[in-house]
Amino acid sequence: MTNLKNNLLFLFLLLSGCQTPKPFEIKSFEKEELHIVKVSSDRVKQECYFLNAEKENKWRHQYFLYILNNGNEVIAAMHPINQDDDQCRIQKTKIEKILKEDSKVTLCLRDVLIKNSEKSTPDIYIDFGSYGKHSSSYTYLTLDTICNSKQCFSISETWTDTCPGVKK
Fold it and tell me: How many C-beta atoms lie closer than 10 Å to residue 158's C-beta?
């Protein structure tokens, strides 16, 4: 009988220790306007999008980042200010290095997370490779910070200190 209990305890410890980490976790703070997302790097995609408007100068690029959650829903975040093409691509390259350097990243996102109604936004599909193509399921949030275990990138140095669990 004691042998059976010991074997069951050993089996339980073995199984609980072998669980794989969740590919996506989100915690919300400050009246649901601050979100800390821990996600597998392969569930994050990014792009620099050119906003074609009346031939204004080159400051018409917008940086977007897309995160795929466990339910195959896309949470989109963006840099809140338009950039020129070079700035947007530099930001994209810095974040790509963070994504490639570690299998998991932590993001700090701002604004209220609101689910899109079916007709509120056009279907723009983001290709997540083996996870498939998915359209954005929520209104856009503001990107604050993205970190891996070694480095961070933040759009605002003052905000970084207000993100719980995000370390520079």
Answer: 7
